[in-house]
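We were asked to recover a plausible sequence for a given structure. The inputs and outputs are reproduced exactly as logged, with field labels preserved.

PROBLEM: sequence recovery
POSITIONS: 127
GIVEN STRUCTURE:
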């Protein structure tokens, strides 16, 4: 019996039985479309693709507008009841609004009755 331990092949040596996976080959970029050389059928195909893209964009825009309308209505309900408003929410909400608003809009936001006075004082014009 042989008392020598069996040697494990080192990775990357020719002794290893496992083959290394081949490196991925770079794909060439497809050539650019020469829009001046399109025939009528190709022009119609491009037009149909653009029209379909425009339809998708319009549908997405309608969804976004609906989401914003819903948020606006809900926010109006929250801000309409000063006694029922969570003070922590109102503080964070106005802080974020004032931080992201332009100077002109920040002045208008700071004049809202629910805006915390310490935040509003920073954005109101000095008298």
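RECOVERED SEQUENCE:
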């Amino acid at each position: 019996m042989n008392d020598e331990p069996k040697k494990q092949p080192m990775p990357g040596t020719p002794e290893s039985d496992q083959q290394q996976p081949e490196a991925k080959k770079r794909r060439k970029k497809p050539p650019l479309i020469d829009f001046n050389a399109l025939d009528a059928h190709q022009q119609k195909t491009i037009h149909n693709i653009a029209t379909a893209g425009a339809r998708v964009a319009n549908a997405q825009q309608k969804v976004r507008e609906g989401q914003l309308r819903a948020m606006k209505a809900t926010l109006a309900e929250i801000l309409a009841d000063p006694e029922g408003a969570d003070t922590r929410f109102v503080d964070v909400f106005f802080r974020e609004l004032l931080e992201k608003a332009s100077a002109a809009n920040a002045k208008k936001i700071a004049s809202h009755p629910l805006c915390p006075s310490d935040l509003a004082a920073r954005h109101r014009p000095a008298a």
